[in-house]
Amino acid sequence: MFSSVEASEAERNTGRPGDALVEPADVVMDRAFTLPAPREVVWPWLVQLGKGRAGWYLPRAIERFLPSSRRAARSLNPAWLRLEAGDVVPDYGGRNETFQVALITPPAALVYRSQRGRTSLTWSLVLEPADSEPGRTRVFLRLRMAPVRHKLLARTAGELIDLLTVAGMAAGLAERLRGHDGAT
């Protein structure tokens, strides 16, 4: 369904919504992948992401090892599709960690912001029609952080965790989008 979650150099160099919220950033992590559905179909799946909501999508092959209470949603839930700027969404980063919706422009951009100790961060999700692939969507994810005390650790271990997390989400979303109607 997707070949990689690596953003190209051109994609990394493109400004994204929310970039100015953490400027300058000490660490920036960019990921991108293509999904087999138009962005209007992909959008609601991203809106319902989050702890206490749809969860974090993983493929069935991985989720089967998780307790059923920790598995992500396999369908759209209308209660999770209402999201506005200022809304707070629980995060898995810790018991009391949250993201606040900083910007939402359906079906193109969703930007979250958070404060983790002294570090401010933003997480931008941008959907664009995939070039030369009608009916498919390119999803761009950008995490920006500052100040970051241990930059080397964030750029190594943090990058690895981000890569694995986004690769799992990309595979889980692709699996859920087969048939373009959310049916599995």
Task: Supply the key terms.
184 residues, alpha+beta, six-stranded antiparallel β-sheet, 6 strands, globular
Strand and helix map with partners:
Blueprint: H1 9-13, E1 27-35, H2 39-47, H3 60-63, E2 88-90, E3 98-105, E4 109-116, E5 119-129, E6 137-146, H4 151-177
Antiparallel strand pairs: 1-6, 2-3, 3-4, 4-5, 5-6
Task: Produce a short descriptive summary.
Helix content is 24%, strand content 27%.
User: What is the strand tally?
Assistant: 6
Rg (CA only) = 16 Å
Structural class: alpha+beta
Reading side by side through the largest sheet, how are the strands ordered? 1-6-5-4-3-2
- Secondary structure tally, helices: 4
What do these coordinates show?
The protein is an alpha+beta fold and 184 residues long. The chain is built from four helices and six strands; from the N terminus they run H-E-H-H-E-E-E-E-E-H. It has helices at residues 9-13, 39-47, 60-63, 151-177; strands at 27-35, 88-90, 98-105, 109-116, 119-129, 137-146. Strands 1-6-5-4-3-2 form a six-stranded antiparallel sheet, covered by helices on one side. The longest helix has 27 residues, at 151-177. The model has no long low-confidence stretch (mean pLDDT 92).
